[in-house]
Amino acid sequence: xxxxxxxxxxxxxxxxxxxxxxxxxxxxxxxxxxxxxxxxxxxxxxxxxxxxxxxxxxxxxxxxxxxxxxxxxxxxxxxxxxxxxxxxxxxxxxxxxxxxxxxxxxxxxxxxxxxxxxxxxxxxxxxxxxxxxxxxxxxxxxxxxxxxxxxxxxxxxxxxxxxxxxxxxxxxxxxxxxxxxxxxxxxxxxxxxxxxxxxxxxxxxxxxxxxxxxxxxxxxxxxxxxxxxxxxxxxxxxxxxxxxxxxxxxxxxxxxxxxxxxxxxxxxxxxxxxxxxxxxxxxxxxxxxxxxxxxxxxxxxxxxxxxxxxxxxxxxxxxxxxxxxxxxxxxxxxx
Amino acid sequence: xxxxxxxxxxxxxxxxxxxxxxxxxxxxxxxxxxxxxxxxxxxxxxxxxxxxxxxxxxxxxxxxxxxxxxxxxxxxxxxxxxxxxxxxxxxxxxxxxxxxxxxxxxxxxxxxxxxxxxxxxxxxxxxxxxxxxxxxxxxxxxxxxxxxxxxxxxxxxxxxxxxxxxxxxxxxxxxxxxxxxxxxxxxxxxxxxxxxxxxxxxxxxxxxxxxxxxxxxxxxxxxxxxxxxxxxxxxxxxxxxxxxxxxxxxxxxxxxxxxxxxxxxxxxxxxxxxxxxxxxxxxxxxxxxxxxxxxxxxxxxxxxxxxxxxxxxxxxxxxxxxxxxxxxxxxxxxxxxxxxxxxxxxxxxxxx
Lengths: 335, 352
Ligand SMILES: Nc1ncnc2c1ncn2[C@@H]1O[C@H](COP(=O)(O)OP(=O)(O)OP(=O)(O)O)[C@@H](O)[C@H]1O
Ligand code: SF4
Ligand SMILES: [Mg+2]
Hints:
The complex is a heterodimer of chains A (335) and B (352).
Chain A: H1 2-30, H2 33-38, H3 46-51, H4 68-78, H5 85-97, H6 111-146, H7 151-165, H8 168-182, H9 195-228, H10 232-239, H11 244-252, H12 258-281, H13 287-296, H14 300-328, H15 330-334
Helix pairs in contact in A: 1-14, 6-7, 6-9, 6-12, 6-14, 7-9, 8-9, 8-12, 9-12, 10-11, 12-13, 12-14, 13-14
Chain B: E1 6-17, E2 20-32, E3 37-41, H1 48-56, E4 64-71, E5 74-75, H2 76-81, E6 92-96, H3 99-102, H4 109-121, H5 125-138, H6 144-147, H7 157-169, E7 175-179, H8 187-204, E8 207-212, H9 215-218, E9 224-229, E10 232-238, H10 239-244, H11 249-255, E11 307-309, E12 313-315, H12 324-336
Parallel strand pairs in B: 3-8, 3-9, 6-7, 7-8
Antiparallel strand pairs in B: 1-2, 1-4, 4-5, 9-10, 10-12, 11-12
Helix pairs in contact in B: 4-5, 4-7, 5-7, 7-8
The complex binds adenosine-5'-triphosphate, iron/sulfur cluster and magnesium ion.
């Protein structure tokens, strides 16, 4: 077990290193935070030209006692942007290790504070989405495998493929229109008043997010169950006179959960992607909408901090998925 | 004479498929007396498992079944429709003889035994567990109280088989059906299992149907043997009669596929030439005709009805082996060098 955990920790570190390195690189090559901090002048070679004496510095900014280039230079130094990318990456990494995620270029707030404020909402959304997905997919998957080829099974197949082919945002907009705007059955936006209102206002977005993965889960579970139902031990259980219900839930279900569990772990990634969109549609001030804003504004520390948290979450969830395997199959435990 | 424990009358089983209707079982009749052991023997695809599954109500929903199955006064097919509870698993049960796949890999061995006790007999957890340990002891599992908490993969193949038997015997069924897989597991392991089963069933006065593709396995264990071919019972007789005085040419051919004590050990075993019969749209003729050394023109006109002595030695053949009619047919075919279906035959291929 200790070995198992140690391997996971090493894995986590490697994942974080590569993910942050890629994110860091991409942000630096694709965007320029200075534009957002001091304005569009920062984006062009203007200052280089001033420095090279090719032109005079201008005084367009608010504080026109100082030249624009001077201000840009100060900002660069303040945010450490005058150093080479690699050096900045390692400085940032060093800070992370000491628990310092940096401060936002935009709001000047510590990134850890922003995450602490936004993450719980997104987490709640995702947990609710997964619960809804499992609660919908498992009973339907079991029933459709039990009645394979019959009316209910065919109907769920059609419904699943339908759900799989509707993009999240489309479903989100439709659901929002129908359930929240036209008929005010459920709230259209996030309500932070109490835990109750939070759950209540997350029902719609979580359902939208959950239904997409529920369809995947249901298909996987059905397929695996149909394979398991061919096994001798299932015939044996029937020969012992056990009820269909007992056989489906107590014999066939557990050995048929592997694909579902695997995808459960992986789908966390898709869920994060989906929540970026859904948080926008349902006005949820979560980490998803925060990342979107931060990316648009080239707010490096916030983007990177969020990436670290999400990647860690991803690895941790998959660690629990591995633990689930061992619970599902005692043979894995032995090896 | 009292009614037999099990009577199967005119059993037909068909599977509609995209390629046509598979006529898997075609008018099978047999009876089984209480405490007796019946062997059902035949090559792959002859309908042995389908027959057993019909008895056990394990056929897929698509199967079309016709005929009567009476077990201890109950109409089994009606039971399937009405009160399915506490019949299979309690009165009649089945074991699949591959120990590697018959146990649920993710359930503790004990639980797989106790679940039937709890469901059928309403035992509480502790009682059921105690009974499970007793059962394991009876089937010769060492340290049974440790085994109940183990998973199947922690046990050797031999022990697993014993767990399977304990599982089947838990509710003291009066009929046990054992279906041997064609892709045989280790032969010696298989033999040990059968011997163990045979001993246990004698102690308990339990009846048994042993399904095998190997006549040698039936010998010495079964009271009666029924030979199936193409979904039909082609011969049925007390085991000794069948071995000493078989009538159906297919049985005769099967007998030549097993090693015999009275022949030198290096005698070549003959596989039966030709392919198993077509079960979709079969022709109105003896299904064995294309492979039969005795085949005559009349074999191709009609399906041979079951004849012989009812309840004693029954067989379905127009020119039975070990009879004058059969010998004449064979001699004529040998003289011609081939049968009416064009099967090439030679004299030295060992006539009984
Ligand atoms: N569900 C099904 N649908 C269609 N055909 C089937 C089905 N089950 C069995 N059959 C066919 O019925 C025939 C008899 O099968 P069965 O399993 O009884 O053979 P068997 O005598 O047990 O052979 P083996 O020794 O290989 O186990 C085979 O041709 C098989 O393909
Ligand atoms: S002799 Fe005729 S009836 Fe008898 S098995 Fe051969 S072909 Fe069939
Ligand atoms: Mg079979």
